[in-house]
Each structure stands twice: as C-alpha cells, then as structure tokens.
C-alpha cells in the first residue's frame, strides 16, 4: 500500500471535523466494513483503529475497498472537472446563462450543481460571474480606461449593473479605485499594542488597512489621492474594537472591512476568516477549499496581498510540513498571535 504524504493524525482530525477542504486529497478506508469515504462523509465515524488512509479511490479499490454510497468518494474528480468546466463557460459568457442550462452542460442536476459549485468556489455561479466582471472592470481601470469603458468592456450592459455588482465588494467607487482613493476620506491612527505600533485606517465602510510598524507615510503611498484624517470620534469606537481583536485574537468577523481584490483573492480571504481561532491551515488546504487545488502558490500570493492583518487572519496559514512559513510583519508576531489563540500566549 502506498502511504499518503499527509500526516495520519492530521488526516484523522480532518475526518472528525468532516472538513470538505480535504475532499480529493485522500480517502478514508474503513477496514471492518470494506468501504472508503470522503473526509467530509456524514456517516457515523468509525473507530480509529479500523481506519486506513489512501491517496485516492484507485489506491483504496486496489486494496479491495468499495466506495461509500452516501458520500460517493469516487465522484470527487468528476465534481472538480465539472466545476472547472462551469468556470470556463462563465468566463466565456457574455450574458449570464440560466443556472439550469449551466448545470445541464456539465451533466449535473440543478440542485446538486449549485451546492457543489458554491462549496468548491465559495460563491454561487451568479455571484462568481458578477465578481469576475467586477474584477475585469478593475483591471481595465488600472490600465487607464475610463469608468464607462471599463464597465462595458467587462460585460456589464449598463453602469447600474456594475454598481449593483460591486456594492459591498469594492468599498471605494470605481473612479476612486483608479485614482488612488480620490474623493475618499480615510481616518487613521497609530496605536501602541503589546505587539508593537499598529496602523489602523478605515473608510466609512470599514477597515481598509491594519499593519504593524507602519505610519502615515506608508498609508499615503497606498492611497495617494485620499484625504487622510487622523483620529475622529466615530473612528475611535471602531479603533477600540480593532485593538481588542488584536490583543485578544479570535473571531473578528463582526468588524466591518473595506478591502478589495480579485475574485480569487477575495475567495481566499473569506476562507481565512472561516479558520477557527486556535487552528491553522496549510496553503494547499486553502487552495483546495476555494476550489483550486492546483493553485497553492496563488493562494500564498493572495494570503500575502491581505491588507488587514489579524482581521483577515493570514497568520493562521502555515506550510504543509508544519513550519510557520512567512509573515509580512515578522515571525515573532505570527508566533505570538498563534500562541494567544491557542491559550499559550504572553
């Protein structure tokens, strides 16, 4: 039997958590029943001593095991191929296809396809198409196109459709995005924390920058056309929430954010926010969780593009071998954040 590269103890934890991020990375063989399952299978957990892990369906079947009829682990590769094909069709579409037509083109029922696509990508097909169009508009704006040109080049039939799609996703208006924050007021402060000086900056929609050992100069380089205002009464309340979230890191998803990225980056950032405090994930796990198991390096880049440290907890991502990997603000801060979350911090 070929052994899997994933540590058996970590694999077992994934099975106990029914972690869908591991579907496709290995299968769980139950020797007493003669079946193998996905890590996320909803069936009752077997006893640990009766379990063996295999790299995939072929290896498990070579050992005489048969696929579970509940979770159908031999369909994982078929699901991935269907999602990849659906993404290709959405990328090529000038008009949003009917969901039933899209499901039919990849050979799935409507209900199953919608669940499968959202589980793999983190967005519904319609949300993905809107996000991809907003992304293309942003690329055109960055290349110097006018707002109107960018909107129509991205496939929006009317400017109102673009603004509807980008609302709540790109906090700043498209023209402000292109012009380095022109017309946007950003309140900011540098505060002392137990991790060192911390810069916090926010628009009216939420926190747009949280970093360590930075100040007004670095913020101005990121938003050269924005109006930067130090402090402010309303900002002070938000700042207090942010400081508390950093000093006692946990679930900070209630704090509003104003961040922007590509559709893939934002999918990675959402997945980072789903990692429970006290736990870590590898770059490979994050890539798999957003439906792009081959995009490990891209997941690492998206992790590094995070503008709001701690609130989007990129410190919870480590290397597959268990080492800490890198961190924009130094490994001492990363190590301390992880220690605090596990209850062992200073």
**Spatial ordering of strands, largest sheet:** 3-1-2-4
Helix content: 40-55%
Overall pLDDT score: 80
Largest sheet: 4 strands, mixed
Structural class: alpha/beta
SS strand fraction: 5-15%
Distance between the termini: 45 Å
- Shape assignment: globular
**Can you count the beta strands?**
10
Helix segment tally: 15
Secondary-structure element order, N to C: HEEEHEHHHHHHHEEEHEHHEHHEH
Rg over alpha carbons: 22 Å
Low-confidence stretches: 1-5, 166-170
Structure description:
With 346 residues, the chain is an alpha/beta fold. Helix content is 43%, strand content 12%. The protein is built from 15 helices and ten strands. The chain has a four-stranded mixed beta sheet with strand order 3-1-2-4. A four-stranded mixed beta sheet has the order 7-6-5-8, with helices on both faces. The longest helix is centred in the middle third of the chain and has 18 residues, at 125-142. Mean pLDDT is 80; it is low at 1-5 and 166-170.
Task: Name its key features.
single chain; 346 residues; alpha/beta; four-stranded mixed sheet; 15 helices; 10 strands
Layout of strands and helices, then pairs:
Elements: H1 8-16, E1 27-30, E2 35-37, E3 51-54, H2 57-62, E4 66-67, H3 76-92, H4 99-105, H5 110-121, H6 125-142, H7 147-153, H8 159-166, H9 174-178, E5 185-193, E6 196-202, E7 207-212, H10 216-222, E8 227-230, H11 233-247, H12 263-274, E9 281-282, H13 283-289, H14 296-304, E10 317-318, H15 331-341
Parallel strand pairs: 2-4, 5-8, 9-10
Antiparallel strand pairs: 1-2, 1-3, 5-6, 6-7
Helix pairs in contact: 3-5, 3-6, 6-7, 12-14, 13-14
């Amino acid at each position: 039997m070929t052994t899997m590269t994933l540590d058996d103890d970590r694999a077992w934890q994934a099975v106990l958590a029914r972690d869908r991020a591991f579907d496709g990375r290995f299968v769980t063989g139950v020797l007493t029943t003669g079946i193998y399952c996905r890590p996320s299978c909803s069936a009752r957990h077997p006893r640990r001593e009766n379990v063996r892990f295999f790299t995939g369906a072929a290896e498990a079947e070579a050992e005489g095991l048969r696929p579970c009829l509940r979770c159908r682990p031999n369909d994982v590769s078929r699901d991935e191929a269907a999602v990849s094909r659906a993404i290709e069709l959405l990328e090529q579409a000038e008009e949003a296809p009917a969901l039933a037509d899209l499901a039919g083109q990849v050979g799935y029922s409507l209900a199953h396809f919608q669940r499968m696509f959202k589980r793999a990508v983190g967005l519904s097909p319609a949300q993905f198409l809107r996000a991809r169009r907003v992304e293309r508009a942003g690329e055109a704006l960055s290349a110097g196109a006018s707002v109107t040109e960018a909107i129509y080049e991205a496939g929006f039939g009317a400017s109102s459709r673009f603004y509807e799609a980008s609302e709540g996703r790109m906090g700043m208006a498209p023209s402000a995005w292109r012009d380095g924050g022109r017309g946007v007021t950003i309140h900011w402060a540098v505060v002392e924390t137990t991790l060192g000086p911390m810069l916090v900056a926010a628009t009216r929609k939420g926190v747009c920058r949280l970093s360590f050992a930075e100040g007004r100069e670095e913020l101005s380089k990121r938003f050269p056309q924005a109006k930067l205002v130090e402090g402010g009464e309303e900002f002070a309340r938000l700042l207090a929430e942010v400081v508390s979230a950093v000093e006692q890191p946990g679930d900070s998803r209630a704090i509003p954010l104003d961040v922007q990225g590509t559709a893939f980056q934002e999918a990675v950032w959402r997945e980072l926010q789903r990692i429970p405090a006290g736990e870590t994930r590898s770059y490979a796990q994050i890539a798999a969780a957003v439906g792009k198991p081959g995009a490990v390096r891209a997941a690492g880049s998206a992790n590094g593009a995070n503008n709001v440290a701690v609130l989007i907890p990129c410190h919870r991502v480590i290397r597959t071998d268990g080492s800490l990997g890198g961190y924009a603000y130094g490994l001492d801060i990363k190590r301390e954040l992880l220690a605090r979350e596990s209850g062992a911090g200073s």
